[in-house]
Amino acid sequence: MADVQNVTLDRSSGGVEIPQLGFGVFQVPADDVEAAVANALGAGYRHLDTARIYGNEEGVGAALAHAPYPREDIFVTTKLWNDDHGDVDRVRTALRASLERLGLQQLDLYLIHWPVPSADRYVETWRSMLEVREEGLTKAVGVCNFGVDQLQRTYDMVGIMPAINQVELHPYMQQRELREFHDEHNIATQAWSPIGGQSGTVLDDEVIGEIARKHDATPAQVVIAWHLAIGNVVIPKSVTPTRIAENFAAKDLTLDDDDLKAIEKLDRGPDGRVGPDPATFDNGARTD
């Protein structure tokens, strides 16, 4: 049985290591999240990904409080919501509130959830994220849903690239240009909606099905194994104990070159998007 590999974040974040396979809790109801996280930890996950806007940080914290594992063995990420963009006081207050809900003294990773280009506060917010990292409230900081132009502008104005960028990424939307930019600038790539959302279209794809039958695996395991093979950090979610365990077992599945080439051909570019477009998404943004 293979171990979960770690990805070392850029030196600007102190060389923090993030487990490549994690457990996401997006859309997991607050009443269900404690049990789901407990099942995930029991299955072997040691990387948890939540966000203030998910409304379930308290449940994640309760699962952590009852977990029979040292805190230092579990990597915890949460995210800054759109109405908390701005100066360091605002970002610090938001982070401390998340820490309180999680029952933690320090985060492993804090992310700007969306760039909200219409508000144009993401550069200022990135400066603030770096400050709260220096204060020791989080070990590493990064972003979500930033495009190449936003990453480059952030670097041009601040001088430090995010250590990681969490974006929609799955076989139907493979983000090749963005991944190449990440590779060139030592930015880790993290995938949300890693199996293509709730519609099931990716999992129902015949190419994925053929590969799954070939390896006696589930379609979800094939997609997760693809992410791991191309170097993505991936955070599948589920509330079903059997599926949680099945998804974690994808770390033991090795796809061959033919499999990877077949999945590569499934890319639909932006037409494969299942989530909001970061260029226009501004839900909850500050209006002051």
How do the helices and strands line up, and which of them pair or pack?
Blueprint: E1 6-8, E2 17-19, E3 23-24, H1 30-43, E4 47-49, H2 57-66, E5 75-80, H3 88-102, E6 107-112, H4 122-134, E7 138-144, H5 148-158, E8 164-168, H6 176-184, E9 188-192, H7 206-215, H8 219-229, E10 233-234, H9 241-248, H10 257-264
Parallel strand pairs: 3-4, 4-5, 5-6, 6-7, 7-8, 8-9, 9-10
Antiparallel strand pairs: 1-2
The gist of it:
Helices cover 38% and strands 15% of the residues. With 288 residues, the chain is of the alpha/beta class.
Model description:
The chain is an alpha/beta fold. It has a single domain (6-272), classed as NADP-dependent oxidoreductase domain (TIM Barrel), CATH 3.20.20.100. Helix content is 38%, strand content 15%. The protein is built from 10 helices and 10 strands. It has helices spanning 30-43, 57-66, 88-102, 122-134, 148-158, 176-184, 206-215, 219-229, 241-248, 257-264; strands spanning 6-8, 17-19, 23-24, 47-49, 75-80, 107-112, 138-144, 164-168, 188-192, 233-234. The strands form 2 sheets. Strands 3-4-5-6-7-8-9-10 form an 8-stranded parallel beta sheet. It has a two-stranded antiparallel ribbon with strand order 1-2. A hairpin with an 8-residue loop joins strand 1 (6-8) and strand 2. Helix 2 (57-66) packs across helix 3 (88-102) and helix 4 packs across helix 5. The longest helix has 15 residues, at 88-102. The protein starts with 5 loop residues before the first strand and ends in a 24-residue tail after the last helix. The model has no long low-confidence stretch (mean pLDDT 96).
